[in-house]
Design a protein that fits this description.
Structural class: alpha/beta
Strand order of the largest sheet: 6-7-8-3-9-10
Strand content: 15-25%
Number of helices: 10
Largest sheet: 6 strands, mixed
Distance between the termini: 20 Å
Shape: globular
Length: 291
């Protein structure tokens, strides 16, 4: 499908049916976190044994308005606990805005949002200690050592003294930076800073981890180390990652979502979709531009 064909589809959700008929229009992930489709679904889609895990994220009708422009325009999403969701879309599609709302750093103009069983709009303080954020920016203090950075962030969550030190020691070993604990972070390579940012994001032992382009600027070796670290910390946690790297994001995820013009084009359980059809849909969607 060409970009012009994508634009001619009826509304953003209409594009979801454009990639060889592989996807139905998306209204969010639904109870099991996938959009049913015709034609190109994996044969496992017909299996009657579908496990409905409790939802880690339930969003309904999320709208984020900036003047006359809607960065998010009625986003629906239901993601089961323990899932890894990768969010794709063109620049300006609303990906970072959605992630900021999930991180409780922005509030939707309209809609409802529950995370980990808690109303995020009514009780955000009850959620903050259960969320970790990893960005393409390390959010570390360059003039502090690795040890000092982690101790500072632990104190923000009320973790101090011996429990904090035990957690810091554990995380520095996990990210293979124990030998650099007393070095200033400004002396670290980009890859080392990203590894330390994982430790920072996990200092509060979060249930939900959000990643905003975490591979940006990493060389292949650093990216491979980052892959291994993510694999080691995935058990028992839910992940949401924004990425422009379709192959990397798709390989990591259990669920995949495409945003365009602030709307969900498709959200699917990866086991139930055809990879090439998803790629074609993504490439067609990139031509749709910003919200």
């Amino acid at each position: 499908m060409s970009a012009s064909e994508a634009r001619s589809a009826e509304g953003t959700s209409g594009v979801a049916g454009g990639a060889k008929g592989a996807f139905a229009p998306a209204e969010g992930c639904g109870g099991s976190g996938f959009v049913e489709a015709e034609g190109q679904l994996d044969s496992r889609a017909s299996s009657p044994a579908v496990v409905h895990a409790p939802c880690a994220i339930e969003a309904r009708g999320l709208i984020k308005q900036f003047g006359a422009r809607r960065a998010l325009d009625g986003v629906d999403l239901a993601l089961p606990q323990g899932a890894f969701l990768s969010i794709f879309g063109p620049n300006g599609a609303g990906k970072t805005t959605l992630l900021l709302e999930l991180a409780l750093l922005a509030r939707p103009s309209r809609g409802s949002l529950r995370m980990l069983g808690i109303d995020a709009l009514e009780e955000p303080d009850a959620l903050r200690s259960r969320i970790g954020l990893i960005s393409h920016k390390s959010m570390l203090y360059g003039d502090l050592t690795a040890q000092e950075n982690l101790a500072f962030f632990a104190s923000l969550y009320g973790v101090t003294g011996a429990p904090a030190q035990e957690r810091i020691d554990e995380l520095l070993r996990l990210v293979e930076l124990d030998h650099r604990r007393n070095d200033c972070v400004r002396t670290f390579s980009r890859g080392m800073q990203q590894r330390l940012s994982i430790a920072r994001a996990l200092i509060n032992d979060p249930d939900l981890v959000l990643l905003d382009e975490p591979y940006s600027g990493l060389d292949p070796h650093a990216a491979e180390l980052f892959d291994r670290l993510l694999e080691r910390v995935r058990e028992g946690r839910t992940f949401v990652m924004v990425s422009h790297d379709l192959d990397k994001g798709y390989d990591l995820c259990t669920h995949a979502l495409i945003l365009a013009q602030g709307r969900v084009v498709v959200c699917a359980n990866k086991d139930l979709i055809d990879r090439e059809a998803f790629r074609e849909l993504y490439l067609a969607t990139v031509g749709m531009g910003v919200a």
